[in-house]
Amino acid sequence: MTSGEDDALARAAVAALTGQLALTPKPGLPDPRDLAARSTRREHDSLRWSARALAPGLAAMAASARRTGEATPVLRAELGAIGRCTEHSVGLAGGGHKGALWALGFLVAAAALDPRAKAREIAVNARKIAAFNDKGAPKRPSRGSTISAKYGAAGARGEARAGFPHVRRALEALATARKAGATENQARLDASLTVMSTLQDTELLYTAGPLGLRRVQAGARTVLEAGGTATAAGAEALAAMDADLNERGWSPRGSAGLLAGALFLDALPSL
Predict the structure, then answer these.
(1) Cβ(102)–Cβ(41) below 8 Å
(2) For 113-171, how does the pLDDT look when each residue is reduced to its tens digit (9 = 90+)?
(3) For residues 101 and 94, what is the distance between their CA atoms, to the nearest angstrom?
(4) Is the separation of the CB atoms in 167 and 194 below 8 Å?
């Protein structure tokens, strides 16, 4: 049974995920600009509904962590079981957000372990949980694990076991952009581009290969080096990057879940 605190964490995580969906213009990723197209509207609606379908599973993950009280192999196994059940529920709601589920799941559980913890401490707790193997996980390699092995990319598991370095970088980018006077949309876009600039995105490696990954990383760095999305030069570079990715059909989906993780941690002080 979940508590009010567990439900609040789950709602904050879902709000972070739907918040990143609302960002525009997101290079190579669905955003509200494209809703005039019927097929894109269906995709966007499906992503919003499937994001909301994560809430019961995320609350259950928080409850499991609160009950366990520390990072243990038992907690890791429970989170894995809950996550796989949640994946099934999300599939019934339209699919999507698999990477975000696991990133947010670890962070929600870590936040529940210590309600007083700050963002960096939550990331450390998430790393401690992720350090244990999930003995109930399917033995067959996933697409992400196969791509990680092929290219030496950290992947979702490596990101969690490293304490979510890209989530922490996104948080720093948010703070820097806000301090410089950027709007909230611009600050969040800068945070997203910060993730894209260095992330070894396994979804992108699968669809575009190493050359595509490097092109996306270079495009993100170009926007940031131009001063970010709040500047005219940065906005122009972002538009060029977006057009390029849309033309090629490349989507850096791995960055979306990690940005959602950063937005979740950013929202915690206001809960």
Answers:
(1) no
(2) 999 999 999 999 999 999 999 988 888 888 888 888 898 888 888 999 999 999 999 99
(3) 14
(4) no
What is the chain's mean pLDDT, rounded? Answer: 90
- CA 12 to CA 89: how far, in whole Å? 19
CA 132 from centroid of its chain's CA atoms: 21
Residue bearing tokens 């990954």:
213
Extract the tokens encoding 174. 């948010």
Q: And the tokens for 208?
A: 């575009």
Residue 215, phi then psi, degrees to nearest 5: -65, -40
In contact, 221 and 207? CB cutoff 8 Å? no
Residue with token string 């979702």: 156
Decide if 184 contacts 204 (C-beta within 8 A): no
Q: Residue holding tokens 């609606």?
A: 45
User: Do residues 119 and 87 make contact, with C-beta atoms less than 8 angstroms apart?
Assistant: no
- Written as one letter, the residue type at 219 is G
